[in-house]
């Protein structure tokens, strides 16, 4: 039986583990975190990824965990509503897409991968080709051999660093994103409120799955990620209006603040010998694309299918390359709308949004705006690998 080590028990790794086992292979997961992490920020599942989730038998469960956000509003510095629209339009979704919390999705995927060995609180520290396999040295000190090793360990992939000689693969887009759980002081009921200022955006949302709210800060900055994320967020948003003073107080008191660079990964190849990469480790598109979760799900499905049907790592890359390219291309235009560079751009955008909100054809115009996302989300034809394996 083909043995495969997957480094990373996130969305890509868990999807891959499910399909590998379903195709008759023997996956093992290794995850640096000592235990699963639930909750977290919201993510979207669109296009081809919905087909994968349905083939996993998880679509009804995924829909049951929807954030159910019904309204999105943009406010100015005084807190006045400038524009408001339904939650799907606000989030760039059509009505088949699903938005849910990342932790809820990973919990469902862990259920789909139940029974797969997972080494929690461990990591890979060395890899070496050994004939028709790979010798793996773990942080705990033991060594095991696998037929393949797959890095599903995110944008800062240790697997990529260990094996791939492409030091320029990580492309910092010049923006930072911070996320923190906060009290629902605004009394939001499954809704999202966004504040826009030059070079920085802040938003707060509540979901159907939590009594608390989540605050997200997205801003232009290319400095290295500091050891103290709270200090950087305070510095960037210190002079802003709306509810920012209150939100910064919550940031200061929070147990944990997630802060990272918005970045993409561009590699000349996604595999070296019997070591491959999947998800953000291979082709991160960044949060700005809105497609990172869907790409991880589709990538895990395609990689497992190609390994099971003889296409191997090369076949997986051929099947996924154009899909990844098209989804990565979404990030730059999306960022230009998400973070505005000047006072004039902010004023113009708020005026246009205010006018758009009163137009009779606003829903049609909004649908045109999000069409590129959905074209990219469906830019791959999924093979029915399960039927091919069964034959």
| Number of continuous helical runs | 15
Spans of at least 5 consecutive residues whose pLDDT stays below 50 are: none
The CA-CA distance between the termini, in Å, is 18 Å
How does the helix and strand content classify structurally?
A: alpha/beta
Q: Main sheet?
A: 7 strands, mixed
CATH class of the domain at 3-68 and 97-170 and 265-337 and 361-390: Alpha Beta
Give the overall shape, derived from the CA principal axes. globular
Keywords: Monooxygenase, Oxidoreductase
EC number: 1.14.13.114
GO molecular function: 6-hydroxynicotinate 3-monooxygenase activity; FAD binding
InterPro entries: FAD-bd, FAD/NAD-bd_sf, FAD_aromatic-hydroxylase
Describe it.
The protein is an alpha/beta fold. It has a domain at 3-68 and 97-170 and 265-337 and 361-390: FAD/NAD(P)-binding domain. Helices cover 38% and strands 26% of the residues. It has 15 helices and 18 strands. The strands form four sheets. It has a seven-stranded mixed β-sheet with strand order 5-4-13-14-15-12-16, with helices on both faces. A six-stranded mixed β-sheet has the order 7-2-1-11-18-17. Strands 8-9-10 form a three-stranded antiparallel β-sheet. Helix 2 (48-55) crosses helix 10 (292-309), helix 7 (229-237) runs antiparallel to helix 8 (244-253) and helix 10 (292-309) runs antiparallel to helix 11 (312-328). The mean pLDDT is 93.
